[in-house]
């Protein structure tokens, strides 16, 4: 007779986030190695490489372009600012435990897998090399390619169209 839950999964599409859902990401992973002083690192995040500055990357502004005004304003942190792009991969701390196995199990069940992520477009090729399990996704909607970030409803509309699915048939 089979597993009725597995059968019902074939009617659904899974749309995963990537950062801190499938792989652990934090700028602290990189900058804890670059700063000797925790307070100085916090000042760097609060005044220089802020969340709003980084969200511009997620909206599609190239990192090298976005770094220019910060380097002009904070020349003493120029190397740290450039590291945001040049050492991006060091912000990752491996996959979330069980993530690869879950994707493997869902793939084995024939469940369509997709991802939607707030991420700079320019880093996706490197992430695909770092995390081979990303190849299990039929498509990855990247905010930096679309010019809009979550939680803006426009990115979910883009995802719905790309997946060819009614939003009620998508599991987030």
Structural write-up:
By secondary structure, the protein is of the alpha/beta class. The chain folds into two domains: 4-24 and 95-171, Rossmann fold (3-Layer(aba) Sandwich), CATH 3.40.50.1000; 25-91. It is 49% helix and 13% strand. Helix 8 (124-130) links the parallel strand 4 (113-117) and strand 5 (139-142). It is elongated and about 55 Å long. It starts with a helix and ends with a strand.
Shape: elongated
Order of helices and strands: HEEHHHHHEHEHEHHE
**Averaging pLDDT over every residue, what do you get?**
91
Approximate strand percentage: 5-15%
Radius of gyration over alpha carbons? 18 Å
CATH architectural type of the largest domain? 3-Layer(aba) Sandwich
Question: What strand order characterises the main sheet?
Answer: 5-4-1-6
Topology (elements, then pairings):
Layout (H helix, E strand, L loop, with lengths): L3 H6 L3 E4 L6 E3 L1 H8 L3 H10 L3 H8 L4 H11 L4 H9 L5 E4 L3 H10 L4 E5 L6 H7 L8 E4 H4 L6 H11 L6 E2 L1
Parallel strand pairs: 1-4, 1-6, 4-5
Antiparallel strand pairs: 2-3
Helix pairs in contact: 5-6
Provide a compact summary of the structure.
The chain has helices at 4-9, 27-34, 38-47, 51-58, 63-73, 78-86, 99-108, 124-130, 143-146, 153-163; strands spanning 13-16, 23-25, 92-95, 113-117, 139-142, 170-171. With 172 residues, the protein is an alpha/beta fold.
